[in-house]
Amino acid sequence: MRLTHLKLAGFKSFVDPTTIHLHGQRVGVVGPNGCGKSNVMESVRWVLGESSAKEMRADAMDAVIFNGAANRKAISRASVELIFDNSLGGASGEWNQYAEISVKRVIEREKGSTYFINNTAVRRRDVADLFLGTGLGGRGYAIIGQNTISRIVEAKPEEMRIFLEEAAGISKYKERRRETETRLRDTRENLTRVADICRELQTQITKLASQAQVAEQYQALQAALKHAEGQLWLLKQRDASCDWEKSKALVDQLVNALEAQMAALRSSEHALETTRLGYSAASEGINQAQAHYYEANAEVSNLEHQVKQTQEARERVQQQLQQLQHSLTRNAQQQAELQLQLSQANAELSLADAAEADSALQVNTLTQGLPEKNAALKQANGQAQSSQQALQQAKQRIQIEQNNVQYLTRNLQETLQRLTKLQADLAGFVMPEVAELNTQETQLARLQALQLAHEQALQQLRADEACQLQQLNQLRNSLTQAQRD
Fold first, then answer.
1. What are the pLDDT digits (tens) for 254-289?
2. Strands 77-85 and 100-108: what pairing?
């Protein structure tokens, strides 16, 4: 089985899908530092099942996925695939029938690794078993990288023995032997557990045997119990037949008693219906009496309201009469004062007329002695002017007083007119008669007494109705008890 192709995609520096063709038995990868030689060796180890991130020169296994660069974005998936030529049938197990074998490992961020053989999902253990004894594997000697030679040369005897056994092809047999021993040890442990289970089952079988005996006794007792129950039910049926005959006779008696009670119940219902009719008639009479009572109350209220309004109107008219009398007294006083002032003004006017006549006489006298008495004329003219002014002022005062007298006269006439109208309104009010009021009060007292009597009768009817309902309920309870019996 020879390796022919190596395919890488997204593994470390191989971000683009890359295929490396291997044409010979010995292949070397050379190049300057940083070109990816170690990445090629590590990809082969990784796809063959390497699980140590330290061997991959990383902190975690997800670090083998390309993590991005200055001009490339990071990706989330990496895969490495090895293609082997198996034309000679060197593969072991079920894969020996294939001429070409493809081993592939795929890893995704936060999802882990998946192994494939010929595009069939397998376990990591299946990949390791495929390459046992061939020198390939995660730690095999067939892949020689940096420091691999020094690690082999400086290996301890135990490590060297492992390399030699792998080269000799016996490692797979030792692995199978180890697996067989492990299986045998597990089988021995399983046999020990089976023996423990057998002992436990034997104990349970003993218990179940005793329980089976108890169950047989239980079944026998159950059969006896069923037979006894059958006999008991037969006796109960015979007793029930006798009781049924007695109950039938008792039912006949109860039916007769029930018919008698039904007749009494019908009588009670008829009496109750008669009582209800009387109650309805009494209720109607009470309603009519209450209607008359309410009408009388309404009439009394109206009469009281009219009396109250009449009294209030009488008081208002009396107050208005007192106010008018005060106004008449005040107007009479003002008229007397004005008359006195008018007499004084007439007296002053007479004096002024006399003074004017004297002044005219003096003017004539002074005219005769004009040259001699110019000064006396001037003085007389001055006195005449003064008298004329005084006369004019007296006339003005007389005119004002006459206007006041006319105004007071008009007020007096209006007051007299209002007084006449109020007296006419007062004469129009009709006071209710005392006899009619007494008659209304008597009728009201009679209606109240009638209402009280109807209420007492209503209470008595209600009490009778309650008694009748109680008797009816007792009869119904007796009927129900009789029907239940």
1. 888 888 888 888 887 787 788 778 777 777 877 776
2. antiparallel
DSSP, residue by residue, 213-252: HHHHHHHHHHHHHHHHHHHHHHHHHHHHHHHHHHHHHHHH
Q: Among 25-39, 73-87, 133-147, 337-351, which is the least confidently predicted range?
A: 133-147
What separation in angstroms does the CA of 138 have from each of 13, 52, 90, 144? 20, 9, 19, 12
**What is the distance between the alpha carbons of residues 371 and 221, in angstroms, rounded to a whole number?**
190
Q: Which of 357, 340, 445 lies closest to 397 in space, CA to CA?
A: 340
Sequence letter at residue 279: Y
Buried residues in 132-156 as b, exposed as e (16+ CB within 10 A): bbbebbbebbebeeeeeeeeeeeee
Beta bridge partners of 11: 14, 65
Confidence of residue 455 (pLDDT cuts 50, 70, 90): confident
Q: How confident is the model at residue 79 (pLDDT cuts 50, 70, 90)?
A: very high
Burial of 438 (0-12, 13-18, 19+ CB in 10 A): exposed
Residue 402 confidence (pLDDT): 67
Residues 6 or more apart whose CB falls under 8 angstroms from that of 335 comprise: 405, 408
Residues 6+ apart with CB under 8 A from 326: none
Q: How many CB atoms lie within 10 A of CB 35?
A: 12
> Tokens representing 374?
């110019």
Distance CA(366)–CA(373), nearest Å, equals 6
Name 173's Cβ contacts closer than 8 Å, sequence gap at least 6.
133
Burial of 75 (0-12, 13-18, 19+ CB in 10 A): middle
The tokens of 444 are what? 């009201």
